[in-house]
Amino acid sequence: MSVAPRIATLVERLLGAPPPVRIRGWDGSVAGPPDAPVVVVRHPRALRRLLFRPGELGLARAWVAGELDVEGELYPALDVISGLVWNRPDGAATGGRDLLAAGRELLALAGPVPVPPPPPREEVRRRSGPLHSLRRDRQAISHHYDVGNDFYALVLGPSMVYSCAVFGSPKDSLETAQAAKLDLICRKLDLREGQRLLDVGCGWGALARHAAREYGARVVGITLSREQAEFAREQVAKEGLEDRVEIRVQDYRETDDGPFDAISSVGMAEHVGAARYREYASQLFGLLAEGGRLLNHQIARRPRKDETGYHVDPFIDAYVFPDGELAPVGRTVTLLERAGFEVRDLESLREHYALTLRNWVRNLEARWDEAVRLTSPGRARVWRLYMAASALSFERAHIGVNQILAVRPPASGASGLPLRTREWRPAAGERRELAA
């Protein structure tokens, strides 16, 4: 019997229903609905990976190695496959006998499997030190960010901003939306001439430069990525902002030169982890002056009924953000409050991140050969999968992203906020016109 029909039978046995995708086997055989997205199993090694690591990590290794692929557009196939993960069919195999039979069929298809295939080289191999120690966090950040500034420029575009943009309309360009996000953060923080801003996880320095250039702030940007810091310093020098912006390779736990009038943490807190989050919140609280504001921009997951801790995604942990952890937004708010902050505003930007990710995927696909040349075929495949899958996760409300504005309350209790919190100050350009 040809390969594809046997795989389709195996999938049906596991799901309790015919597979919702069309399957193409390494022998050229095809099975499944003719109009469905096509999943290609290029090599029996893909099935061997599933034998040794059943589930998401085995599938991810096969994808990164190029042994598993999708014909045509990625989103429709991912949408179907993700739906099966998020909403397991009622007829799916759960009993030991059904799973044992499926395992035997998988073994027969995979062929001889004396040893597991080695993971693709893009996978994190070794992690030194306790979870979220300084040394281990530096290794994790380096794995994700130190893959070449040219590669990131290809994906992110000229803004070099690696976080959720803010769109006025889905038709906005990515650059327009990222500029709007930077300005929104500065307005929420109520930045003014001469105030000190600490940008935690400053990336390639876009927010630090915007705050200094448009609002006259004096900015310290910290990152654990040496490649990011090098790029950010070059951009600061090009714009003549050396007297207002300092970029450091430094952990937030090593920063001790407060007080700051404002702190921004954009897309960084996901790296902190459950064990360190209270410490993170307390450290930022201690670095703020009384009445100072924190803008914490962070991805969140939906809470579960059997809530026990932070969630770690096997694929993301192995290939994208080692040791990254997502928590429900309610837990984040609670920990900020326990550190002493008064949380004053929370804005969800979930749909905005889906639009941002689709723009990044479009950039990557448009310059695919260059992306492969700058990194590796496996690295490019990692990024395409993680960004496309993340876009769908945001669209389906399985994860979200929120901007939390919090204040270190002064002794008087006066927050300095407007009576209606959302009445942020005018944008920088609008203020210049009013001043003129």
UniProtKB/TrEMBL annotation:
Residues covered by the Polyketide synthase-like methyltransferase domain: 151-409
InterPro entries to which the protein is assigned, alphabetical: CFA/CMAS, CMAS, MeTfrase_dom, SAM-dependent_MTases_sf
Keyword Ion transport found: no
GO MF terms, alphabetically ordered: methyltransferase activity
Keyword tags: Lipid metabolism, Methyltransferase, S-adenosyl-L-methionine, Transferase
Pfam families, alphabetized: CMAS (PF02353)
Swiss-Prot/TrEMBL GO biological process terms: lipid biosynthetic process; methylation
Domain of life: Bacteria
PANTHER family with a match to the protein in the record: CYCLOPROPANE-FATTY-ACYL-PHOSPHOLIPID SYNTHASE
Protein family: Belongs to the CFA/CMAS family.
Name of the protein described by the UniProt record: Class I SAM-dependent methyltransferase
Organism for this UniProt entry: Streptomyces hainanensis
Lineage summary: Bacteria, Bacillati, Actinomycetota, Actinomycetes, Kitasatosporales
